[in-house]
Structures are given as structure tokens and as C-alpha cells.
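Annotated sample (chain length 199).
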Amino acid sequence: MTNAADTLYLKAHVVEGIVKNVVVVSDAFTPTKGEYVTIGEYDSEGNLVESSLLRINGEVPSQEWVYSNGIFEKIEEVFSTRHLLRHLADIRYNKEVAGLETPDGRIATDRHSQSVLSSLYTIAKDRPDEMISFKGSEGFERVKASTLVAVADAVRAHVQLAYQAEHVVAQLIEKEEVRTKEAVTRAFNEAFYTKTEPV
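Output written by the structure step:
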């Protein structure tokens, strides 16, 4: 029973990261099993006061949504760890081979280009003054082998960063901190662009 002076809250009952139901409770409410996350508060006139958690993409969190790291997500579909790791590998591969923008132009980072640059890198280390012809995005170029060292280093760093981001997100998937494909994509982009290192 609530007292007229009690403040009323809209709370999500969360058990193991899944919203089991959404309830209206008062200050006197004593939680049972699980976590109760406040997603809104009612004012003295009975109107629900909007909060940052209340509407996600125009929707109020409800039963079977996922709650993780302070964020509610509508479950498009919760996937198994194996499926999420496969999705993550696809994201990493696409980022790895998408190319690299530099002030001097775009550098191809597909597997063939990585292989060619790796070979040229070896030549450049052994014979830095040798002139090499190669075909870039702007057509054929002839440069000293030593010039390609920086290009090969940039590609290696780009590819390594993609794998590092995959490693970070794989750890989150294994800990069940991300459970949807959308969350995997967001986590990968964040890890990639902030250069987050795995723990």
C-alpha cells in the first residue's frame, strides 16, 4: 500500500541482464530477486517524468529487453556466443580489408595487398635503394623500396588494430556483456576508434 506522499517510480525488474517486467513502485518498495533499475519517476500530478533511460529510440523499455552496462536495448534477437563471435569476425574482416585513408590517398588493405606489401617490405629492408614499380589506386608508380616501408607499417597497424578490437569485443561476448549483433557492432567500432586494448 502506498502513502499519498510516496514518490512513485517506473522500474525494470532485471534478472541476469534481461528485463522480466516493468513495475510501478513507491519509495517503500523492497526489491526481491534480481535488480530493479529506475527508468522513470512520476511527478505529484501522476505524470511520468522523462529520464535518459525512459525512451530508447522512441520506446519505453519493457519485458525481455536487455540491460547491460547501464543501457537498455530492445532485443532484436539474442544470439549464442558462437553466432556473435562469427558476426564479430565478419565485422573485423570487413574493417581489415576496407582500406586505409591517408593524406596522400587511399591504401588498399585487402589480403592480396597485404601480401604484396609484406613482400615489398622485405625487399625494402634488404635493398632500400632499389626502385620498385607497383600499381596503387591512382595507377602505376615507381618509388624507392624504402618509401614503401611507411606504407607497409601503416597497413600492418590498421590490420593489427582491427584484430585488437575483435579481441576486446570477443572478451565482452564471452563475459556476456554484449548479447546482440547491434551491441557487437557498437562495441567493435568503439574499441577500434579508441584503440582499446584487451585485458
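Annotation: The first helix runs from residue 81 to 96.
Annotation: The chain has a mean pLDDT of 84.
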